[in-house]
Design a protein that fits this description.
By secondary structure, this protein is mainly alpha-helical. It has four helices and no strands.
């Protein structure tokens, strides 16, 4: 593989990683909002807070699904990068993680603790994507 092809694969991986990170950030913000409205609702917020909480949860669900799709695209691009000679990225269990990320969370969102679990998983995914993105930056700067 020549230098231009190698750089192209790395840049595609970075672009997919940035898209995944953007999706994860939006999902994290949405989950935080849903969690806040869940607390208001539990403290007796009434019908309006219940409606807003469910609306926020529906929005968060959509963003979680977008993040999941973006993580799968990032996974594919990382697989392409692995074929670049002399390049090995430390993904650990990230590729397997992306396959089952968020499974089961959405169905159980009616409980406040599940929203908090989802927020933790989004943050863990964000940290893993940022770590891999730093590795890609280091390789591109060589």
């Amino acid at each position: 593989m020549n230098h231009l092809d190698r750089e192209k694969e790395l840049r595609e991986a970075k672009l997919a990683g940035q898209e995944a990170l953007d999706c994860l950030n939006r999902a994290a913000d949405s989950l935080k909002s849903a969690g806040n409205w869940g607390i208001v609702d539990m403290l007796g917020g009434g019908l309006i807070s219940t409606f807003i909480k469910h609306s926020k949860m529906n929005g968060a669900e959509e963003l979680v699904q977008q993040a999941r799709s973006a993580l799968k695209r990032f996974q594919k691009e990382l697989t392409d990068v692995e074929t670049v000679e002399d390049f090995h990225i430390e993904t650990g269990d990230f590729l397997a993680f992306a396959d089952y990320f968020f499974d089961g969370i959405i169905a159980d969102w009616l409980m406040q603790s599940r929203i908090n679990d989802a927020r933790e998983q989004v943050e863990n995914a964000r940290q893993k994507v940022m770590y891999i993105m730093r590795q890609l930056d280091e390789y591109l700067s060589r």
